[in-house]
Amino acid sequence: MVTTTATAHNPMPELLRRLERFGFPERYVRGIGLPNWWDDEIATTPLGKAQALILLSRNLGLELTSLESDSAPIQPLDPGNVLPKKRRDASDEALVPTRCVAARLARLARDATATVSGDLPRSAAEVRSAVLACGSGCVDLPSLLSYCWEIGIPVSQLATLPPGGSKLDGLCAAISDGDGAFSIVLSNKRRFFSWLLFILAHELGHAVLGHLTAGSILFDDAVESRDAEACETAANDFAVEVLTGRPDTQITRRRVPKAPELVERAREAGLRHGVDPGAIVLNYVYHLNKTALSRRSYWPLAFSALGILDPNGNAPALVSSEMRGRLDWTHFTEETGEFVRRVSSVD
């Protein structure tokens, strides 16, 4: 008598196709969403399939029940009230996968952060005064990062975004079950310290200025854009005041200098006024672009100047390094800790 053994059905190929349609390509799912020990054969048993679905739900910020159904569309975990600000050419669909992962990282980082004071500052002036009182000659990226962590606001680096998804400069999240708890995620990949410095100050402004209610998340797709939204203008002014001492600082010169001269002038002014030289460069070029009569962009001048100021700078790596030292990694399971390290490029 000939006997046959039925081959166990493996649900992973269809699940991976569904995730691909949602916006998570297979290489992202395997590289970020699943732990390194995962083998698709595990999913051929009911218990193994359940394990895969739980891991993907937790790591990618997806509704578990929508993953369990082969017919229902995959849905993101409800992050609360989402307040997006996106580029005009970015579709809502392109934002969703990035939002899922960013919101998940924000929550995990906050859960693994021990609040030192728990009290938000009341103004940009208070932030600037507190940072300078710690001995920093100006508000720069290392000092503002340290300040945020010390007041209980984790600052995470989302280093690996879903391929093809919308880019993200940063987000600020108000954790729903915390007592005034916030979490900031940065995702801009520019290496210049002053570039991420402004984004961080902007996101902190959203928290301090009361732009978020409990359980809401504000996604900033491009904080340098000229949108007229009141909260974005206020957050920009907050950032400028933190960095320079005045919310209306506009650095101008009659003659447009070459990059080396701009750097020299920025360093001199920075020493006199306690301002990061890179912040001076960005302020100057931003207003230069706004007032330029021609369509010429002066951002190449800014990039050249910042390259002189930060010849070996790697701002995202600095944010990830601060994460590594500040998070309570014992709070995570092995799989969750691996996800956080992978998605934030923490060594």
Outline of this structure?
By secondary structure, the protein is α/β, with parallel strands linked by helices. It has helices spanning 12-22, 26-33, 46-60, 64-68, 92-111, 124-133, 141-150, 193-208, 230-244, 259-273, 277-291, 299-309, 315-326, 334-344; strands spanning 81-85, 155-157, 170-174, 182-186, 216-220. Among the domains are: 12-68, no CATH class; 87-221 and 314-344, no CATH class.
Termini separation comes to 58 Å
- Which stretches are low in confidence, meaning pLDDT under 50 for 5 or more residues running? none
Series of secondary-structure elements, N-terminal to C-terminal:
HHHHEHHHEEEHEHHHHHH
Query: Number of helical runs?
Result: 14
- The number of distinct β-strands equals 5
What is the percentage of strand-forming residues? 5-15%
**Radius of gyration using CA atoms only:** 22 Å
Give the helix level as a range of percent: 40-55%
Q: Major sheet: size, sense and barrel closure? A: 5 strands, mixed
Q: Any idea what the shape is?
A: elongated
Q: How would you classify the quaternary structure?
A: single chain
Q: What descriptive keywords fit this protein?
A:
5 strands; 5-stranded mixed β-sheet; 14 helices; alpha/beta; elongated; 347 residues
